[in-house]
């Protein structure tokens, strides 16, 4: 029997039991994707990430309990956090992960992990009647990225009170639906919730990749260069968002909730 080291990291928060949890498995040798999927199903968190060192850089794969996914912001942030906290990589060094979505880079900045994700352009669209029925209100804006629907509604109270019908989401041909609005909190610019049962995650507690669309959209609308974004899920979390020319920087704190050995 072989054992591997793993950590449970709460991301986009500096509090235990808040933010978005990710399990991080550090591999000393190659493990099959079939085994990775079994491990992800065994660990009751939204995403399990697997890191394997390749010379001076790393490969990174993410699995929900149901399937492998092509991009995971909080799983990437948690993976970088583990490598720095364990002294595997000095904090002054940038980490490069090779993933199914291409290379991802992480930096330690101002006691936060900062990762660069791709920009996801939003194509504005007329709201489908089925989507309006699902929302229960008329949205201000509906757009589609290559992954998701981005839906702006009138205020954050609508987002907090929204109770999604997850079974009805099967009709929508997207990875997920992101509801967003401007924030009424003084130190927060925007808020959102993200639903993705297609990935096996009914509600993502804090979704990083959707900010590849939310960042440019809201910065243009609010005439800002940077944003502070809050996820209004039960666990909550805060993301610092900086759109750049062809990428979006997202940053957040992280904290270790658990570490141990996993038998495979």
TrEMBL record:
Source species, please?
Lysinibacillus capsici
| Keyword match Isomerase | yes
Q: What is this protein called?
A: PhzF family phenazine biosynthesis protein
**Which SUPFAM superfamilies does the UniProt entry name for this protein?**
Diaminopimelate epimerase-like
Give a Pfam family name.
Answer: PhzC-PhzF
> Sorted alphabetically, which keywords does the UniProt record give?
Isomerase
Q: Which family does it belong to?
A: Belongs to the PhzF family.
**What stretches pass through the bilayer?**
none
Source organism, top-level taxon:
Bacteria
InterPro entries the UniProt entry points to: Phenazine_PhzF-like
Entry keyword Magnesium: no
